[in-house]
Amino acid sequence: MPHRLTPTRPQLVYLVFGPQTYHQEAQFSIVSALANLRKTPGEAVDIQVYSDNAEPYQHLPVTVHTLDAATREAWNQPYGYHFRSKHVVLRQVLANAPVAALIDTDTFFHQSPMELFRRIKPGTLLCNAIGATFGADKQCPLFQSLGPLLEARGLADQHMDLLNSGVMGLMQEDAPLLDHSIALMDEYYPHANGAYTLEELCLAVAAYRRMHVTQCTDLLHHYWSRKQLFRAKVQAWLAKHQHAPLSSQALQDVALVNAQLPKPPALQRLGYKALSLTLPSEQRQFLRELMYGCYEYPNEFDRASAPAWWDKALENANSRHPRPLCHDKLRQWFKHPGMRLSLGGKHRTVRDSLIKRSQR
Does the pLDDT at position 359 exceed 80? Predict the structure, then answer.
């Protein structure tokens, strides 16, 4: 559903390209914004999607700006740093809009997006979250490589707050901040040793001592951590509603895809801990995490996270061992009577899923 830019409206902006997973994230993030917009009746936003694929958005009230490979490459120059394009596209939108916010795809709203725009005022940069200070971790590669250079020029010091750019919101009059952040990326990329968080550092440097910075973690959830668990919830919602994403049932179900990490009740977890004592010590944490995926959650979208919990259990088990667990070792673990008893009727499903994954 193409909708033209309405200059008086706030602009919600998404930049989406690449694998289907990112488009799925964006679809749900957009619908969550629309579902929560109902909390502020009579108010509206325009949603601009800059993407290499318009098809996933055909049932949504958005304007899609199709990006070809040449445009994306130009936005990433001079070093092919693709996070640079976030700042470029927001700068482009602000050339024609009084206020805009760029939202990462791995997000979903739990309040009206109008509340987000109320925090964007002249002289204010809205980010997703304000983090630790630049000098809090002196072993951080970016602090070691860029800290002395930035301090020597008076651009930053160890007391500067770091920012998460899962949200970037500005008034039109403050758009030159993005010119500054883009210039900083271009200047310091050769010294950053490929650090993907360079754009967040450059945003913080551009705003330091010049802008008031505020955050919005209470308005939307940015699931950069535990991503597979939240992606499983989102994909379950899409499987149910992708053909009618704005139906009343679809909008109602948005609230069930919540920011809570699905975990069994405390008493149930104590039971899992007791069951794990029947296993050798190296297998106990593995079993407990598998059981998180076997619990019958009352929320259907939490239940969809089961395979993600099992995958996470295997990933964590591998991280605790000097070498990744081969499928023969996994078979041996799953043959243990305590493992069979604990997993019960789901033993075969869990075993086959993880052995198949270990063979990739």
Answer: no
Beta bridge partners of 262: none
The closest alpha carbon to 93, from 123, 124, 65, belongs to: 65
Write down which residue in 222, 253, 284 finishes a domain: 222
**pLDDT at residue number 228:** 92
What is the sign of the dihedral through the CA atoms of 197, 199, 200 and 204?
Answer: positive
Which residues, 6+ apart, have CB-to-CB distance to 106 below 8 Å?
25, 29, 166, 222, 223, 224, 227, 230, 231
pLDDT single digits (tens) 39-82 = 999 999 999 999 999 999 999 999 999 999 999 999 999 999 99
Across the chain, where does the E strand assignment appear? 11-16, 46-51, 63-66, 99-103, 107-109, 124-133, 161-171, 212-214, 220-222
Beta carbons of 106 and 25 less than 8 angstroms apart: yes
- Asked if the structure places residue 199 within a domain, the reply is yes
Whole-angstrom Cα distance, residue 314 to residue 302?
19
Q: Is residue 107 part of a domain?
A: yes
Domain match, 92 and 188 both? yes
Write the CATH number for 46.
3.90.550.10
Range of the domain at 42: 11-222
Tell if the pTM clears 0.90, that is, is over it: yes
